[in-house]
Write a structure and sequence with these properties.
- It is a single chain.
- By secondary structure, the chain is of the alpha/beta class.
- The chain is built from 14 helices and eight strands.
- The protein folds into three domains: about 80 residues, Orthogonal Bundle (Multidrug-efflux Transporter Regulator, Chain: A, Domain 2); about 80 residues, Methionine synthase domain (Methyltransferase, Methionine Synthase (B12-binding Domains), Chain A, domain 1, Orthogonal Bundle); about 130 residues, Cobalamin-binding domain (Rossmann fold, 3-Layer(aba) Sandwich), CATH 3.40.50.
- The strands form two sheets. Strands 5-4-6-7-8 form a five-stranded parallel β-sheet, sandwiched between helices. Strands 1-3-2 form a three-stranded antiparallel β-sheet.
- Strand 4, helix 10 and strand 5 form a beta-alpha-beta unit.
- The radius of gyration is 24 Å and the shape is elongated.
Length: about 325
């Protein structure tokens, strides 16, 4: 019987010219190949897998979109490569980017982050902001991009330096979106932050962007803030809303105590809005303190509109 050889991903990377990140990402997102697993869950690729990955690499290098060729069998990939090549796309040529294809824009952003190309990543964001409405920009690009960066970093597909580079640019981009929105002098005030132990600030910043675009005066206090400081700022500034983002973890006992304390310290006429990936993990305590739980930016916008309307009536 002919012996079938299996190769670990490090060897496959060397044989195909694809990084381990790209191999995993293509496998997870597009189902390009289906490697077997060892008892310790390490990937092992067959020679057929390697052949297909080589062909896919060649196809992408010649301008084909990975999403369009990922599921093709080897014989069809060979036929495509034997035909007239697609014009190669220059990564710096943004005229080829369709900003209505949100998945492609996100993929382009991830590639720029992976390449440590801050200028290209920032340009994608700026061009997207000029092509999309603000709700589209936030809901269809920024939110899923932030989640994807976090997932890729946690899964080891992005290095810490990649994640830090992306975070610095997104932070600056969101800050600019908040600052360029002008509010009237009598606009209601919203405090946006994250409580102690919550290092991920983008949810709070996104809440600020949504509020600013709706005419609120946004005071963004940054992440990881003691609840007594949040309450003090809300009291001094006569805030109408305190918005908090909770991303990780979903079972912090100290955070539950902090939320109880925050509710007791806030004036009675202040609304508390809480969102973020891990907010559902605190549903019991959030219901107990009468916080408004929002699942996305659309709901946040609706809640802010109702609060402002009630204030005026």
């Amino acid at each position: 019987m002919e012996k079938t050889f299996k190769y670990p991903i490090k060897v496959v990377s060397q044989m195909t010219g694809l990084s381990e990140y790209v191999i995993r990402a293509w496998e997870k997102r597009y189902g390009t190949v289906n490697p077997s697993r060892t008892g310790t869950n390490r990937r092992l690729y067959s020679e057929e897998d390697i052949q297909k990955l080589k062909l896919l690499n060649d196809a992408v290098q010649r301008g084909h979109n990975i999403g369009g060729v990922a599921k093709l069998p080897i014989n069809e990939l060979q036929a495509i490569l034997a035909s007239k090549p697609v014009t190669s796309i220059n990564k710096e040529d943004f005229s080829n980017v369709t900003f209505t294809d949100f998945d492609s824009v996100i993929d382009n952003c991830i590639e720029a982050i992976k390449d440590y190309n801050a200028k290209r990543f920032e340009t994608y964001l700026l061009k997207a902001s000029s092509k999309m409405s603000q709700p589209q920009l936030i809901e269809r690009l920024i939110v899923p991009l932030v989640y994807k960066i976090g997932d890729l970093w946690q899964d080891g597909y992005l290095r810490v330096a990649n994640e830090h580079l992306a975070s610095a640019i997104i932070r600056s981009f969101l800050s600019n979106l908040i600052e360029r929105q002008l509010s009237s002098e009598n606009a209601p005030v919203i405090i946006s932050s994250t409580p102690c132990g919550q290092e991920h600030e983008f949810g709070a910043m996104i809440a600020g962007v949504v509020a600013a675009s709706a005419g609120w005066k946004v005071i963004y206090l940054g992440p990881n803030l003691p609840v007594e400081e949040i309450a003090a700022a809300a009291d001094i500034l006569h805030a109408k809303v305190v918005a908090l983002s909770i991303v990780y973890p979903s079972d912090d006992l100290q955070l539950k105590k902090d939320l109880l304390n925050l509710k007791q310290m806030l004036p009675e006429n202040i609304y508390l809005i809480v969102g973020g990936r891990s907010a559902p993990g605190y549903t019991d305590i959030l219901n107990e303190i009468n916080a408004i739980i929002v699942k996305d930016t659309k709901q946040l916008s609706i809640e802010l509109g109702e609060i402002r309307e009630n204030r005026q009536n």
